[in-house]
Amino acid sequence: MVVSILLLLAGAVLAWLGGSLFVDGSVGLAKWARWPVAVIGVTVAAFGTSSPELMVAIQSAVNGVPQISLGDVLGSNVVNISLLLAFVLSLSGMKVEDAGLRRDWACALVVPLIMAAVLWDGWFSRMDALVLISLFAGWLMMVVRHARRHRARAVAEVMALKRSAMLKTVIQVGSGLALLIGAAQLVVRGGTGMAQALGWSPFVVGAVVVAVATGTPELATTIFSRVRGHHDVGLGNILGSNLFNALFVASVAALIHPFPVKLPELMPSLLFGVVTTLMILPGRGGALGRWRGFVLLALYGCYVAMTLGAAAT
Questions:
Q1: pLDDT tens digits for 176-203?
Q2: Angle at 277 between CA 189 and CA 248, to 5 degrees
Q3: Which of the pair, 19 or 80, is modelled with greater confidence?
């Protein structure tokens, strides 16, 4: 248990350092590509910080326990909003400006419903996985189209990066991502060790412990983007990560190893996935007040209780 705790602490430190580098590099990349910062957050940053979930999906499927990955994916989508984003919101609130984030919010809201429909028969098949990956590709095309329109309008207002600055940006993104991936691996190992000592099922281990562990990069990225005033990176990172997790990462595990699912275990994650996403719909002027953070934290407590309760029945 002591070793697991030390791994968690070491992972948290690496995630903090990696988050700082990754946010700075992502903003620089947005300027170079002439894309909205929010687009970088919902693509590059989101996919990068979701790479630990992808690694967990591949490893768990190869080891014959893909239920850990499904629990990690569905649990992470709740954790990302009701714990990580909620923590940042409760400190100072947030304001978002990019119109594309409302599109991504709507997609993230529908995803738990799509997952419920796909898994309703109690089996996650390769055909189900292909359907989800196709939906992911469609969403990604919409994001890229939005970015291209913005680039065409914003040529005059974008500062060109010098070659030296571009090299610095690439180094920041690469080193930050490497630290985030390493941090997640440490946290996953520590968190999984603690959960196994408690004797929980693979899905619950994924939903309650591994989900928090793999969410460390999202937390670091969201905090640093908030500190630097890049609100759209933080929220875009959360929304993009949730879409990437549910539509792509979960599908990878099913493609490798199709598996049966227990609907009672899934329902709390799917239900709270919808409820928590509804709670972060930007208000007038794109404002997300501090009170939402406190409500989301309370919802997270309810989610953990319901998940553990459903597994016990």
A1: 878 877 876 777 777 777 777 777 777 8
A2: 50
A3: 80
More confident site: 1 or 164: 1
Contacts of 2 (CB under 8 A, 6+ apart): none
Which two three-digit tokens encode residue 305?
Answer: 């209780």
- Domains recognised in the chain with CATH numbers: 38-146+187-312 (1.20.1420.30)
Band of residue 277 on the pLDDT scale cut at 50, 70, 90? very high
Cα end-to-end span (Å), the chain: 27
Burial class (CB in 10 A: 0-12, 13-18, 19+), 153: exposed
Dist CA 282 CA 12 (whole Å): 29
How far apart CA 237 and CA 239 sit, in angstroms, is 6
| Cβ(67)–Cβ(199) below 8 Å | no
Q: How far apart are CA 235 and CA 231, in angstroms?
A: 6
Helix axes 216-227, 231-243, angle to 10 degrees: 160
Please tell me the distance from the alpha carbon of residue 267 to that of residue 270, in angstroms, as a whole number: 5
* Residue range 43-73, pLDDT digits in tens: 666 777 677 777 777 877 887 878 888 888 8
Strands (E), the chain: 94-95, 123-124, 259-260, 287-288
Contact 270, 74 (CB under 8 A): yes
Place of tokens 């894309």: 35
Q: At residue 94, what are phi and psi to the nearest 5 degrees? A: -160, 150
